[in-house]
């Protein structure tokens, strides 16, 4: 089975969006470089960020996200983000009306069901869990292997927390990756077991 990785861009004070879900300048680093990150032509990063992010993206088999993120992104128009093969959506509601049943999205009602489905689909590839409420629940359940953060140079003051509503201490190892890109600091921590 592949690693379970919690990942997102985050403000210096630990938020993934403002209270109104606006990510503000958190993703500025994804469009401030000159190296295309994918085939869209929209995402362009520094060479340093490309060398760090692209190999990671190539390892991801499945992304797990909550229904709120799914709705905010309009279901990524039926195509999982970052070239990922499948997305698993944690929700207590059915797929949206008119949703293409052939789209590689799977709707489940718990983090346990999400992780089981994601690991089945991913095999030995990485299962990525979006930070926020769902990511925090997966971390609190002891199911996250590593935490990756793309720290943007902005302070929000308040908003949607990277670790969601986690209310207990969780220890991480020292960062084993610290990479300075343009408008971002890439960090990776293993979760202490």
What report would you give on this structure?
It is built from four helices and twelve strands, in the order E-E-E-E-H-E-H-E-E-H-E-H-E-E-E-E. It is an alpha/beta fold. The chain has a single domain, classed as Dihydrofolate Reductase, subunit A (3-Layer(aba) Sandwich). The chain is globular, with a radius of gyration of 16 Å. The model has no long low-confidence stretch (mean pLDDT about 95). This is Dihydrofolate reductase family protein. It holds the Pfam family RibD_C.
- Distance separating the two termini: 17 Å
- Succession of helices and strands: EEEEHEHEEHEHEEEE
State the CATH architecture. Answer: 3-Layer(aba) Sandwich
Count of individual domains: 1
Counting H and I runs of at least 4 residues, what is the number of helices? Answer: 4
What is the helix content?
10-25%
Quote the average pLDDT: 95
InterPro entries: DHFR-like_dom_sf, RibDG_C
Protein name: Dihydrofolate reductase family protein
Pfam families: RibD_C (PF01872)
Domain Bacterial bifunctional deaminase-reductase C-terminal: 88-171
């Amino acid at each position: 089975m592949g690693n379970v990785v919690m990942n997102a861009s985050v403000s210096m004070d630990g938020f993934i969006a403002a209270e109104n879900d606006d990510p503000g300048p958190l993703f500025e680093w994804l469009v401030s470089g000159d190296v295309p990150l994918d085939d869209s032509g929209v995402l362009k990063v520094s060479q340093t960020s490309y060398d760090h992010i692209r190999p990671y993206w190539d390892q991801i088999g499945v992304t797990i996200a909550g229904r709120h993120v799914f709705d905010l992104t309009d279901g990524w128009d039926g195509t999982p983000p970052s070239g990922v093969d499948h997305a698993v959506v944690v929700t207590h509601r059915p797929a949206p009306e008119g949703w293409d049943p052939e789209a590689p999205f799977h709707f489940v009602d718990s983090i346990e069901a999400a992780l089981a489905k994601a690991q089945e689909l991913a095999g030995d590839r990485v299962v990525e869990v979006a930070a926020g409420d769902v990511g925090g629940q997966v971390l609190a359940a002891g199911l996250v292997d590593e935490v990756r953060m793309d720290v943007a140079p902005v302070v929000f003051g308040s908003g949607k927390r990277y670790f969601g509503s986690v209310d207990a201490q969780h220890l991480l190892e020292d960062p084993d990756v610290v990479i300075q890109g343009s408008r971002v600091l890439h960090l990776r921590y293993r979760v202490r077991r």
